[in-house]
Specification:
431 residues, Tick-borne Encephalitis virus Glycoprotein, domain 1, 3 domains, 12-stranded antiparallel beta sheet, 3 helices
Length: 431
């Protein structure tokens, strides 16, 4: 190779160190960029072809080495739609291409990112700080299961949540073991004094109208202990009605053994149905009062009152959108003014067999390559709602690499200077 070869090799070394400096500069510049993955610099030696005894260290080439598999620190965020991936994988995102008739149009190309600073835009889409839109699959509101497998852009409708009529009331309580007065009947003037309070619950009609259902229990017999469930159908004038099949018989140990004419065994679920439930003129419809298995008992109670342990229902009135958040299961959850929380979407994540071979693009997104392999989609990735993954750049480590790079570059310049002096000496030989 000679002096010229040494000079050219030194220049490649300086170029490689300049390339390393560029990566270090980019890492430091993005030390606060959400989801940023630092770029490492690798070096490969290029050996000239020569006999074994004449081989010399050749030129050097610098190349970038991704750290996509190195996770950054996760920090909490006050924004509910921010989300961090606590495990492997990437969010699936899309890029907006244009708008037509006020509706966003997206490119068909899917991109992948760890940047989870998503927030709602004016159209209801979840978009991160780099302008990429989050993708997921819808969740069925009635079952809570995902519907579909093809990711689409997540869009939250800010319209009214439709009301839902009450179909089922979960009701569990313990009746007192002793009551001194037997109930005479719903028409008796002393009906309230003859019965005990069994709780009250607000239920909803199909149009969202609310009605308060007050419940009372009256003892029909002491041997065996037999109770009847009643509800108030009208407050003015006060009108009470016996619940159909709402007569319950208990054994000496306080265990339910019979409902009306039906024997109840251990582990049997118990319920009563009120067809066309109407309260104060508001028609609710058919409602099931579900006691479950073992949810209705008669154990000793010194205060002579019923102890209600569960009383809730599945209906709700109409509501307006109050907030949107992402939970730790990766579900996009909308909260409405009526207190109802609805899971709307499941966030989809993508994994790759060789994630460090993804192509890096602007805004912290990546594109799949032949070397990375195709995306493997999942609905079970670990996530942390209300959090962000920070850059994996370590400033102190970058400064250390900066010193090493500077010294290596300076050493290369010395080779150039020395080669120049040797060439000068060679030229001076002919003078």
């Amino acid at each position: 190779m000679g002096i010229y070869g040494a000079l050219q090799t030194a220049v490649t070394g300086m170029a490689a160190q300049s390339f390393a400096l560029e990566n270090i500069s980019g890492n430091i510049a993005n030390s606060q960029t959400t989801g940023y993955k630092r770029m490492e610099t690798g070096f490969i030696d290029l050996i000239p072809d020569a006999a074994v005894g004449r081989q010399v260290p050749g030129a050097v080439l610098g190349y970038s080495r991704s750290t996509n598999d190195v996770r950054g620190d996760i920090v909490t965020s006050q924004t509910g739609t921010h989300v961090a991936l606590s495990g492997s994988g990437y969010f699936v995102v899309a890029q907006k291409s244009s708008t037509s008739d006020g509706q966003a149009i997206f490119n068909d190309t899917q991109y992948f990112t760890r940047r989870g600073d998503f927030e709602l835009d004016r159209e209801g889409y979840l978009v991160n700080g780099a302008g990429y839109y989050l993708m997921g699959v819808p969740v069925d509101r009635s079952t809570g299961n995902v519907s579909g497998s093809v990711p689409g852009e997540i869009k939250v409708d800010n319209g009214l949540l439709d009301p839902r009529a009450t179909k089922k009331v979960n009701y569990q309580l313990n009746l007192p073991d002793e009551v001194g007065l037997l109930v005479a009947g719903v028409g008796d003037p002393e009906f309230v004094e003859q019965t005990i309070e069994g709780g009250a619950i607000t239920v909803y009609a199909e149009n969202g109208a609310a009605a308060n259902v007050q419940l009372r229990w009256g003892k029909l017999a002491d041997t065996p202990d037999t109770w009847q469930l009643y509800y108030m159908s009208n407050a003015d004038p006060e009108t009470w009605a016996a619940v159909p099949d709402g007569e319950f018989e208990f054994d000496a140990g306080g265990t339910l053994v019979r409902q009306s004419a039906t024997a109840i065994g251990a582990g049997d679920a118990v319920s009563v149905d009120i067809a066309g439930l109407t309260v104060n003129g508001t028609t609710i419809g058919n409602v099931k009062f579900d006691f479950g298995a073992g949810g209705l008992t008669q154990y000793d109670n010194a205060n002579g009152r019923a102890s209600v342990s569960a009383l809730n229902q599945d209906g709700y009135p109409a509501g307006t959108l109050s907030s949107v958040a992402v939970n730790d299961s990766g579900r996009v959850v909308a909260t409405y003014s009526n207190g109802k929380q609805i899971e709307l979407y499941q966030i989809v994540t993508a994994n790759f067999n060789a994630e460090n071979q993804l192509k890096r693009m602007d805004g912290g997104v990546y594109a799949a390559t032949a070397a990375s392999g195709e995306a493997i989609f999942s609905l079970d990735a670990g996530m942390t709602g209300g959090a962000l993954e920070m850059s994996n750049t370590d400033i102190s480590e970058e400064f250390t690499k900066l010193i090493v790079t500077q010294q290596a570059y300076a050493a290369g310049t010395r080779i150039v200077s020395t080669s120049d002096e040797m060439l000068q000496e060679a030229l001076n030989m002919v003078r």
